[in-house]
Amino acid sequence: MSKPVIWVTGASSGIGEATAIKFLQEGYRVILSARNKAALEAVKANAPNPELCAVLLLDLAESDHFEEKVSQAIAFFGQIDIMFHNGGISQRSLARETALEVDRKLMEVNFFGTVALTKALLPHFIERRSGHFAVITSLVGKFGSPYRSAYAASKHALHGFFDSLRAEQFRENITVTMICPGFIRTQVSVNAITGDGTPLNFMDDAQANGMSAEKCADKIFFALRKQKEEVYIGGKEIFAVYLKRFFPTVFSKMLRKVKVR
Predict the structure, then answer these.
(1) For residues 148 and 145, what is the distance between their CA atoms, to the nearest angstrom?
(2) CA max distance for the chain
(3) If you ran DSSP here, which 8-state letter would residue 202 be given?
């Protein structure tokens, strides 16, 4: 049997890079995508078996090119088995101080870019009657928190879209796994955009003290192998999902007191 193929967006660093390396270690063939070619080539060069890697430049804000990108991705290994949606941008700003164009940018990249790439690849999965969409959202895809209004909105939207897609396409053996990380030690907060669209350029304390990207990747690999529908990854912060679900008023009062930036 041929080795399965996973296509990873946002593969140049952080969770995307760590997950790509994990799947390579497990014998998968991997397509690495992001906007930075040099960073992708570095990931490939440092991979345990670079001959199983392919590099494909991709900008989630340029969805007009996605049908062509999908054709190029399929051409590398002849198939795609898992689409790992990891690319995106975060936010650190109060809603009242965030320009509307910044809100739109977050939705364009995190939601519309991911949806457009999904729709471009979906015919391939339907034709093969097999496929797996793995989608990195966030714990704030389950609840909103201060300084992340548009980011949380874009992640909430992904849950709505992919829950619907899962129900629509189950007869074609198409699987959806929603992955909700908490605090993972990556550059996500450093690269987050502020109210005027400029980068934050420093790391949150919670992020700096979070789970390693490698440990997160191990948990992602397990979740995808088990074809879980939804998984929460992180430390004690994951309990906020259950607190929100069963004690929403208590959770709301606690959230007002949390100092996050």
Answers:
(1) 6
(2) 54
(3) S
Give the integer Cα–Cα distance in Å for 47 and 49: 5
Q: Which of 28, 147, 151, 232 is catalytic?
A: 151
pLDDT of residue 1: 46
The model's pLDDT over 73-121, given as tens digits with 9 standing for 90+, comes to 999 999 999 999 999 999 999 999 999 999 999 999 999 999 999 999 9
Enumerate residues 6+ apart whose C-beta is below 8 A from 70: 117, 120, 121, 124
* Residues of the chain scoring pLDDT < 70: 1, 259-261
In CATH, what number is assigned to the domain containing residue 88? 3.40.50.720
- Please count the structural domains in the chain: 1
Active site residue 151: yes
Enclosing domain of residue 235: 5-257
> What pTM did the predictor assign?
0.95
Q: Which residues pair with 175 in a beta bridge?
A: 132
Of the candidates 98, 88, 187, the one whose C-alpha atom is nearest the C-alpha of residue 141 is 88
